[in-house]
Amino acid sequence: MTQKLRVTSVKHRATRRGVFFTAQTNVEGVRICNKGNGGETFLGGEWADIKPFYHTLTEWDLEDLVTAYEKTL
């Protein structure tokens, strides 16, 4: 069974075209990223680490995880 993914920290940085962010998760080697240039939000890390989540979480699910964490701050 796959461990439930949660965001544990987020770092934001302004770019010329938007806001870049990297969110660390409770799963070692798995992070949620957005490059801040209008592209998608995606899983970052080694394939072996992100594979259990790759086909089960959409871009919108990843955004929701980050938003849920930010609401707790």
Tell me the total number of β-strands.
Answer: 4
Q: How many helices in DSSP terms?
A: 2
Determine Rg (CA atoms, Å).
Answer: 12 Å
Beta content: 25-35%
Kindly report the spatial arrangement of strands forming the biggest sheet.
1-2-3-4
Strand pairing plus helix content: what structural class? alpha+beta
Rough shape?
A: globular
Largest sheet: 4 strands, antiparallel
Low-confidence blocks of residues: none
Provide the residue-averaged pLDDT. 92
- SSE pattern: EEEEHH
Separation of the first and last Cα atoms: 29 Å
What share of residues is helical?
25-40%
Protein described:
The protein has 73 residues and is an alpha+beta fold. The chain has 2 helices and 4 strands, in the order ββββαα. A 4-stranded antiparallel beta sheet has the order 1-2-3-4. It starts with 6 loop residues before the first strand and ends with a helix.
Task: Provide the descriptors you would attach to this structure in a database record.
single chain; alpha+beta; four-stranded antiparallel beta sheet; 29% helix; 4 strands; 73 residues
Please give the structural blueprint:
Elements: E1 7-14, E2 19-25, E3 31-34, E4 42-44, H1 47-54, H2 59-71
Antiparallel strand pairs: 1-2, 2-3, 3-4
Could you write a compact summary of the structure shown?
By secondary structure, the protein is α+β, with helices and mostly antiparallel strands.
